[in-house]
Design a protein that fits this description.
alpha/beta; Rossmann fold; 2 domains; five-stranded mixed beta sheet; 12 strands; globular
Length: about 425
C-alpha cells in the first residue's frame, strides 16, 4: 500500500460518496462507517532460538446483519488496525454483492511470515486462535486465508479451535486443506472468479477474448489463477506479471514476447508469490522495473497485489489501449485514480465484485462442512461461475439504470442489501 494512503479512510470515502447518492439516513451511515466489533491482542511465541517474541494480532467484525462475519487472516508486516478495518468493510460489501448470507470481517498479524520457520508459524497461528476463539465460530465469524497465510495454517487453526471447544468443528475456518474439511476448487476460486467477470465485461464491451491481452500485478494465489484462466478460459494472452523479489526486497516485472506461461512461472514461485528471476531468464523472459506492468499496451489490467497500487500519479502511465481494469486485489485503486478511469471511460470491475470468488467458494466450503458431504470440483466451479455471472449482471444493470460508475453501482447493490437486512432485523 502507498505510504500516504490510509486504506480505511479510502474505504470510508468510497462508502460516503455512495451513501450520499442513496440519500442514506445519517444514523445508518454512521453505523456502517465503522466496524461493529474490534479486537487487538498480544500473541507471545517462543521462537526457535528460545526467546519469546510478542506479535500483535487483530480481528475486526464490520457488520453481521446478513450472517456470520467472514474474512481472511493476513500475515503482513504493514498490517495495522486501519488496514484490517478497511478490509473488513470491503468484505461486508463483497458478501452482499455476491449475495451470500455472510457479513464482513477480517483479521491479521503484523509479521512477515516468510521470516518464520514452519514451527514458529504453527505456534503463531495456534496462538492467534487461542486469543480470539471465544469470539469466532461457524455461527459467529469464520476466518480464511489471505496474504501471507495458506491452507496448512488454516488446518492448524481449525485443529486448535476444535481442541479448545472440545469438538471437531471444521466450519470455523475455510480455505482448509482438502481432506481436512476443505473444498475442491477453493485454490482456483478467486483467480477464476476474476476471469468470469472479465469474460462478462468483454461480452458487454463486445471484445473478442481470444484476441485480448492482459498485464497482471502480483503472483500470489489470485494472480496465478487469473493468469491461467485468462489463457485457458478466455483464450487470451498475458504479456507480463509484476511481482516481489524477496532477495532484493523490491518489485519487478517479468514478460515474454510470446506471452507468459503461468504454469512455468508457478513452478519457479515460492509460497509467498515471489518468482525466482534467475530461473526465468534462461527461458527467454525479460526483466523490467516493478511498474512496467502499468504501461503495457494491453486490453486488460489485473492488479492482484495489495491496496492503493493505482494512484492519481501512477494512473497516468496506463496505456490508452486499456479497456478493462479487473481488480483482483482489495482496494488497489485510489479515489483519485477512479476519477481518471471514469473520465477516460475505462470499464472497472470493482474489487469486491471482481475478487468475490474466494469468499463464495469459502461459503460453499462451510455449506459442505455443515452437510458433511463434499462436491466434485466441476460442481464447485460451475456454482461459482453462476454466482459470479449473476453478481456481475446485477451490478451492470444498476450501473446502466442509474447511469453511475461500476464501483458506485456495486456499492449501491451491496449497501442496499445490508441496510435491508438491518431493517428486517429491527436494528434501524
Amino acid at each position: 500500500m502507498s505510504n500516504t494512503t490510509n486504506a480505511f479512510e479510502m474505504a470510508q470515502s468510497q462508502f460516503d460518496d455512495v451513501a450520499e447518492m442513496l440519500n442514506l439516513d445519517p444514523q445508518v451511515r454512521e453505523m456502517l462507517r465503522w466496524p461493529t466489533r474490534e479486537f487487538k491482542f498480544q500473541i507471545p511465541v517462543k521462537m526457535d532460538d528460545g526467546n519469546i517474541r510478542v506479535f500483535f494480532g487483530y480481528r475486526i467484525q464490520h457488520n453481521d446483519a446478513r450472517g456470520p462475519s467472514k474474512g481472511g487472516i493476513r500475515f503482513h508486516p504493514s498490517e495495522t488496525m486501519d488496514t484490517v478495518r478497511a478490509l473488513s468493510m470491503w468484505m461486508t460489501w463483497k458478501c452482499a454483492v455476491a449475495d451470500i448470507p455472510l457479513g464482513g470481517g477480517k483479521g491479521g498479524v503484523a509479521v512477515d511470515s516468510s521470516t518464520l520457520s514452519l514451527a514458529e508459524k504453527e505456534k503463531l497461528t495456534r496462538g492467534w486462535i487461542g486469543q480470539i476463539y471465544r469470539n469466532i465460530g461457524p455461527r459467529l465469524d469464520v476466518p480464511a486465508p489471505d496474504v501471507g497465510t495458506n491452507s496448512q495454517m488454516m488446518g492448524w487453526m481449525m485443529d486448535e479451535y476444535s481442541k479448545l471447544v472440545g469438538q471437531y468443528t471444521p466450519g470455523v475456518i475455510t480455505g482448509k486443506p482438502v481432506g481436512s474439511g476443505g473444498s475442491l476448487g477453493r485454490t482456483e476460486a478467486t483467480g477464476y472468479g476474476v476471469i468470469y467477470t472479465v469474460r462478462e465485461a468483454m461480452k458487454h464491451l463486445k471484445l473478442d477474448p481470444a484476441k485480448a491481452t492482459a498485464a497482471v500485478q502480483g503472483f500470489g494465489n489470485v494472480a496465478q489463477y487469473a493468469a491461467k484462466g485468462f489463457k485457458e478460459i478466455l483464450g487470451g494472452k498475458v504479456v507480463c506479471v509484476s511481482c516481489w523479489d524477496r532477495e532484493e526486497r523490491a518489485p519487478f516485472t517479468i514478460s515474454h514476447p510470446d506471452g507468459v506461461d503461468a504454469d512455468f512461472l508457478m513452478s519457479i514461485t515460492d509460497q509467498y508469490g515471489s518468482i525466482e528471476k534467475k530461473k526465468a531468464v534462461p527461458e527467454g523472459y525479460i526483466i523490467e522495473d516493478g511498474d512496467a506492468w502499468l504501461s503495457k499496451d494491453v486490453d486488460v489490467l489485473i492488479p492482484s497485489a495489495l491496496e492503493a497500487q493505482i494512484t492519481g500519479d501512477s494512473v497516468k502511465k496506463i496505456s490508452d489501449r486499456v479497456k478493462i481494469v479487473a481488480e483482483g486485489a482489495n482496494g488497489p485503486t485510489t479515489p483519485e485514480a477512479d476519477v481518471v478511469f471514469e473520465k477516460n471511460n475505462i470499464f472497472i470491475i470493482p474489487d469486491f465484485l471482481c475478487n468475490a470468488g474466494g469468499v463464495t467458494v469459502s461459503y460453499f466450503e462451510g455449506v459442505q462442512n455443515d452437510m458433511n458431504f463434499y462436491w466434485q470440483k466441476d460442481e464447485v466451479l460451475n456454482r461459482l461461475d453462476t454466482k459470479m455471472t449473476r453478481a456481475f449482471a446485477n451490478v451492470l444493470e444498476m450501473s446502466e439504470r442509474e447511469k453511475v460508475f461500476m464501483r458506485d453501482a456495486a456499492y449501491m447493490v451491496s449497501i442496499g442489501k445490508v441496510v435491508e437486512a438491518m431493517e428486517m432485523r429491527g436494528w434501524l
